[in-house]
Amino acid sequence: MPGSDTMINTATKTHCPYCALQCGMQIGPELAISPRTDIPANASGALCQKGWTAGELLTNGERLTAPLLHGEPVEWDVALDYVAYRLSAIRAEHGPDAVAVFGGGGLTNEKAYTLGKFARVALGTSQIDYNGRFCMSSAAAASIKAFGMDRGMPFPITDLDDADVVMIAGGNVAETMPPFVRHLDGPRLIVIDPRRTQTAKLAWLHLQPTPGTDLALALGLLHLAIADGLVDEEYVAARTTGFEEVRTSLSAWWPEQVERVTGVPVHHMRQAVRALAAVDKAYILTGRGAEQHAKGTDTVTAFINLALALGLPGRQGSGYGCVTGQGNGQGGREHGQKADQLPGYRKIDDPAAREHVAGVWGIPAEDIPGPGRSAYELLDALGTPEGPKALMLFGSNPVISAPAAEHVAGRIGALDLLVVCDFVMSETAALADVVFPVTQWAEESGTMTNLEGRVLLRRRAATPPEGVRSDLDVLAALAQRLGHTFETEPVKVFDELRRASAGGAADYSGITYERIAEETGVFWPCPSPGHPGTPRPFLDRFAHPDGRARFVPVQHRPAAEEPDEDYPVYLSTGRVLAHYQSGAQTRRIAPLVQAAPEPYVELHPDLAEQLDITPGDVVRVSSRRGEAKAVARISDAIRRDTVFMPFHWEGANRLTNPALDPTSRMPEFKVCAVRVERDS
Ligand code: SF4
Asked: Which residues form the 4Fe-4S Mo/W bis-MGD-type domain (predicted)?
């Protein structure tokens, strides 16, 4: 069994391989996992079921240990030579943009950085993006507009411990990252979610809006705050601009109108906004439920407008934050694997940024390509006459995780060349011409930036199985065949990343592996070795040149696809406790499979009765994009007009709608119209 002889002799301090909380853990001796208590995210000693079973990833029997060329094991040099030859031939025939690169929000900072450099320097392509576009991009875009900078939670997570009130819009932390809940023991919790989730069950107040109407709800809350005289006028005058324009823009969103659109009673809205305004320490957090919409940027903007009106951001003990999801969702969007970015959270079309990064890379600035296609647009263009003919894919499984997944699988099937780096045969790897077997998690060192913006060190604890190499080795070996020299040692890559990020918004230049180890993480920006890092970047000023936050007027509009006669029910998608993202890792861990063995459709008892569906029935769910089957679960935790499916298995994303947010290019994962029937 490949990897079954993996042995760890000593205890090594590291972090969980999965979500953005990046819980501190110790692995070893052997495969024993124990929580660390020096990492604030889980200093309580908590881990979730995924974390406790993470050691089993290292001994998984389905581990890939040899490169595969058209499904057959081959020597590394054979596979690398083949890929380099094919990439060169495709570039020569169709131009550099005929080769695309797709990354992931779980890759270490070192890998994300090297991937961006590989695309721009070794391949000369603009066609690079990553699956983080599907997760955090709307909150990032809204934060940049409002604050001039995006750092998911611009405060340490432990600040929440002392809060009086926390509002979470579209986040189910009790299920997705349970140790987070330990930070919510004290505050009064307000949850906005169409489902009565595990998090909503903990709430003092649960607002249950119609899917796709969070934006209207946020506008209604701000309308009420203004009408009830709850605005922090002093703060608004001293620290913001644009309030009057937003005040005027709210005229259509009086409370009764918002109740009609959202289904949330006015008295609940009033309770929520009064609770937030009545206390000294209040936070508003958003998650994917509010963000993964074709209007996600505007929805987050509306919640930020509410937070600004109440005087929360940039004050110790209060604030706005986005609860990032993927393991390195924060760092992954800072160092250049995004179509429009260069390392240090620099914009790729900024001449000064291009000069700086080109200097670190040793190339002329004009050789750095411009912005490329966003993630879904890139996948949608694969194999088309104008689109990429080859795709290199790292740390992602879009056949399961992209919207309109069947269409995406078709586009991938139209490629001349698909190269996948993974450590197991994911559904996307199974379609590849070449699969490179790579190291994972505890077999490699690297940095991850957690949901607080704290840069953490993941340490190598185990020797990888024979035949496996790191993604950094793969990229360097291909770069060398294409005429370039890349570093492969994570610490050396990080030193280069530090130089590339220096002077950017996400400045890592003062962070070293040694400092991270000694200080159990360092917050960016950290612009010099003596700098203490920046846990709360907005205390004195926001990142716009005038130091003020921006109110930005936004308007509600319906979901891109509303229910109709043919598809009369809303579908919403999300995660379950036992699984992570596309499930490529967690669906291979026996205790997690035992805990959550199969996909399901959750529907309200009234809807189930109307459709003659009983618990355990196999249900067919169809949308304009595809069809999926799953077992019925009947629960009054969901609205009568909505069904819910977890997205860790094939199926849910065959249904979802790839309508894109105009700013962030985030697809509308969280709402579409479906038909639900008992499978005869
Ligand atoms: S999956 Fe997230 S919440 Fe669970 S142990 Fe890992 S980092 Fe912590």
From this structure: 9-60
Determine contact, residues 679/620, Cβ cutoff 8 Å.
Answer: yes
How do residues 92-121 score in pLDDT, each as one tens digit? 999 999 999 999 999 999 999 999 999 999
Which amino acid does the sequence have at 645? M
CA atoms of 624 and 675, how far apart (whole Å): 9
The SS3 of residue 539 is coil
Phi, psi of 44 (to 5 degrees): -70, -10
Q: For residue 544, give the DSSP letter.
A: S
Which residues of the chain, if any, have pLDDT below 70?
Answer: 1-7
CB half-sphere exposure, 374, CA atoms < 13 A: 18
CB 598 within 8 A of CB 629: no
Residue with CA at minimum distance from ligand 1 atom 3: 177
- Amino acid letter for position 455: V
The pLDDT of residue 231:
98
Residue 134 confidence (pLDDT):
92
Q: What is the dihedral sign for C-alpha 360, 365, 368, 371?
A: positive
* Cα–Cα dist 208/28, whole Å: 44
Residues lining ligand 1, Cβ inside 6 A: 16, 18-19, 21-23, 42, 47-48, 50-51, 177-179
pLDDT of residue 7: 65
Distance CA 578, CA 54 (A): 11
pLDDT digits 0-9 by tens, 566-609:
999 999 999 888 888 888 888 988 999 999 999 999 999 999 99
C-alpha torsion sign, points 323, 327, 329, 331: positive
E strands, 98-143, where? 99-103, 128-130
Distance 22 CA to ligand 1 centre (A): 6
DSSP string, 649-676: STTHHHHSEEEE-TTT--EETT-EEEEE
Question: What is the pLDDT, as a whole number, of residue 1?
Answer: 37
Cβ–Cβ under 8 Å, residues 564 and 673: yes
What is the C-alpha separation between 235 and 543, in angstroms, rounded? 16
* Model pLDDT, residue 30: 86
* Cα 376 to middle of ligand 1, angstroms: 27
546: left (phi over 0), alpha (psi -120 to 50) or beta: alpha
Tokens of 267: 């008295």
- Kind and range of the H or E run holding 419: strand 417-422
- From residue 619, alpha-carbon distances to 286, 604, 669, 680 in Å are 31, 14, 20, 9
- Which residues are within 8 A (CB) of 609 and not within 5 positions of it... i.e. 6 or more apart? none
Is 72 exposed, middle or buried, given 0-12, 13-18 or 19+ CB atoms closer than 10 A? exposed
pTM above threshold 0.85: yes
Pocket test for ligand 1, best of 23, 56, 157, 451 (most atoms within 8 A of CB): 23
> Can you say how many angstroms the Cα of residue 447 is from the centroid of all Cα atoms in its chain?
17
CA 540 to CA 121: how far, in whole Å? Answer: 38
Amino acid identity, position 414: A
**Residue-level pLDDT at 5:** 54
Q: 565: burial class by Cβ within 10 Å (0-12, 13-18, 19+)?
A: exposed
Neighbours of 245 (CB within 10 A): 11
Predicted confidence at residue 3, as pLDDT, reads: 46
Sign, CA torsion 119/120/121/124: positive
Q: How high is the pLDDT of residue 98?
A: 98
Q: What integer pLDDT is reported at residue 40 of this predicted model?
A: 94
